[in-house]
User: Which sequence fits this backbone?
């Protein structure tokens, strides 16, 4: 179940690494009072589900995916909580999850996604 995040107060923030890749720089991060997740305020910010659905639409038009493939991928994307929660997830983790779901239903490589998105 997706949490309705309630951010802690300014004085309750916790010290954690600024980035999950570089653990040397620390910064105060807000956290959720309901679930305890620490909010991601790094450069690797997550995107909402609408962003990933738009990426799917671009991929579908570029690769000429069948309607049934698009629908199966969309249903799996909608079922993933990590793609709905932009609080404690990293953007790179979402991208890996997106690629794994799309790869189940069509032949897609990492390079293909970068080529399609960054034309």
Assistant:
């Amino acid at each position: 179940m997706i949490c309705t995040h309630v951010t802690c107060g300014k004085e309750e923030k916790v010290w954690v690494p600024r980035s999950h890749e570089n653990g040397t720089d620390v910064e105060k991060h807000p956290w959720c009072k309901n679930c305890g997740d620490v909010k991601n305020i790094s450069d690797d910010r997550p995107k909402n589900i609408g962003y990933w659905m738009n990426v799917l639409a671009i991929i579908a038009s570029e690769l000429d995916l069948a309607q049934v493939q698009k629908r199966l991928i969309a249903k799996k994307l909608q079922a993933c909580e990590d793609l709905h929660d932009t609080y404690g997830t990293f953007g790179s983790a979402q991208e890996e999850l997106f690629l794994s779901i799309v790869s189940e239903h069509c032949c897609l490589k990492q390079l293909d996604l970068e080529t399609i998105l960054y034309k």
In short: The mean pLDDT is 82. Strands lie at 14-17, 26-29. DSSP finds five helices and two strands in the chain.
